[in-house]
What we know:
The chain is mainly β. The chain has a domain at 75-205: Neuraminidase (6 Propeller), CATH 2.120.10. The chain has 2 helices and 26 strands. Strands 3-4-5-7-8-9-10-11-12-13 form a 10-stranded antiparallel sheet, with no helix packed on it. Strands 14-15-16-17-18-19-20-21-22-23 form a 10-stranded antiparallel sheet, with no helix packed on it. The longest helix has 42 residues, at 2-43.
Amino acid sequence: MFYGSKLSKLKISLILFIALFTLVGCSKEKETSTGDSKTESSSSTNTNNITSSGNTIEDTSSDEQLSKASISTPVQPGSWLYELNNSLIFINWKDQNKINISPLDSNTFDLSKAKPLGEFSANEIFLLNDFIYYSNILDGGKLYKMKTDGTDNKKLNDHNSSNISVIGNMVYYINKSDNNRIYSVNDDGTNVSMISKNSTGKFVYGGEWIFYQNANDKYKLYAIKNDGSENVKVTDDVFEYLALNNDYIYYSNKSDNDKLYRISPDGSNKEKLLDLKVSNLIINNNLYFINKDDMNNLYRYSLNDEKTERLATDMIFDYVVESSSLYYRKKTDDGILIRLKN
């Protein structure tokens, strides 16, 4: 009788032990599973920040955003020469970079005979309507504007400015005083704003989007909205020169020995156009460039029939394309500015 009671108690104790062991094992398995899930969730988090050269770049690239990038009414950045009625307004490199004026009455211009508008020396000018916007060498490259007769001279900012582009009453420029970032300012000097946090080599205004050389990402081609709200990479190609029309971005592809390429603003349809080493791209109905494979001669590439034509054989140093003519200076500088009918 006693033995049977003892045996029953032993059975009950064994059942309770097995039940308790099973319960503890299940609890540990559940805890382990929950911990793995948390780790996986944490490791899949992506902040979309790229770090390059010690700088943090906000990269909002995505296929959806990139498809929004487009070009409308592109504007060529500031230059060193413009036509104005029957005159030329230009930077005279033979006269301490002073802004000069010369009558448009010849195909060759002796710079020693040109007249300065005043004591205004510039690295770059941009002509719009009756005003000249310029980076003032005599004041640390700061942005100024004045009337085309040299009056009403006014400072617009306190930044060493380059790549000047004027659209309506807004001026976009590279602020060399702030790590070469893209800025904007109203043409009356108010509302100075930083557009891009990235250092920039150069840019071209393309309407809603600005296409630029991202120095923080090995000088690759990026696009940013003109209010700075979205920033996207267009291609991994590194470039030196670029020009826009309403359909494509044309650029010298340093990733392919500066050969001429084009790409759609959304990053699609990349195509090599010429197996030539090119520089100084300008679009004015056609695409103009300096051919590095042909003694720095000046060429024109038709955007309609894709034919290439050599225009000058003078070893070009720099050139400008205006509506009816193009102007260039030779590498062997003799103080003469040359005009070609476009």
